[in-house]
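Observation: inputs received (chain + 6-O-phosphono-alpha-D-glucopyranose).
Thought: call the complex predictor directly.
Action: predict_structure
Action Input:
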Amino acid sequence: DQVEKGQFEHFMLKEIHEQPLTLRNTMLGRINDRDEVSFPELAHAAGAFKDVDKIFIVACGTAYHAGLVGSTIIEKLTRIPVQSDIASEFRYRDPIITDRTLVIVVSQSGETADTLAALHESRRNGAKILAITNVPTSSIARDADYVIATKAGPEIAVASTKAYTAQLLAFYLFSIYLAQERQTLGKELHSELVKGLKTLPVQVEKVLENADEVKLFAESIKEAKSLFFIGRGLDYPVALEGSLKLKEISYIHSEAYAAGEMKHGTLALIEKGTPVIALATHMDLYEKTVSNIKEVKARGAHVMGITVEGNVELLNAVDEICFIPPSLQLLAPILAVVPLQLISYYASLALGNDIDKPRNLAKSVTVE
Ligand code: G6P
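Observation:
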């Protein structure tokens, strides 16, 4: 075990630090010299997605959170309506599926029973199935029509980190691929996106190097009874993922909220000292998020802000801050989730928990 963990105390920390490499590997061979995205494994799929008029993204846990980001990206770049669903709910709600529906199932292990069952149900109803999975030999890969492999390598820690960012990257690449096919993406945004994707591994390295503040904050929340994660736009699904990560391994209760929705209930739970992690990476929603931060601050919250380098004025609105490198706003989730992974890791470390094998949870759940 220790040999495999190398210099790291836990697999989770090792896997967090592998992300620059796993992002590079997931991009490898999928972007050509003209900045076009192609998937060698989709060679047999040429034109297969031309008629698609509706997409569902179906998954569980962390993979579901990747799907939430994925749905926004696909809609934005292709204008095809996309809906994300939790696999254990999807097939019981009689979704409208036709032969022009594409169902994208996302699964690190490729063996999750709920996701596999949703795949089978969608196939019975005539949908085309694309699997995004880290295990190309898995049941989900075998039963799908098309497979995009995330190249995260084996993930040992129960709490998923590198598989999640690889899933996000797979969604960015697939969205560009679909947009190329349907000619819905302007040249300028296309090249900015590809350039931005290629820069991500180095930017993640930077986030990992500047983790000191996040580490101190994580240690400070170990006694907290409850925490809130807030964000707008793509920061909201990232908040959901940060909150899940924290619950999984620290056992501290937390909730993620769309920042604008706080005032409709959750604000009642903010007391003096309640830790709030506020994501503010969306520049077009920045002012609105800052005013939501002020609302929780005014009720005594202790706020850790996560924003883009340069937004120094946020320092006046929060108690602690973590800057992520500037990127296209659409790509920020890959950078913003890294400090959240570290917060959950270091909070759990301070609590002395079994980080790689949290209580009551399994890496892959093969029962429904
Ligand atoms: C389990 C794991 C989670 C994971 C979920 C879905 O609950 O503990 O970390 O996100 O299953 O797993 P999958 O392999 O389908 O991505």
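Thought: report the result.
Final Answer: The first strand starts at residue 54 and ends at 59. DSSP finds 13 helices and ten strands in the chain.
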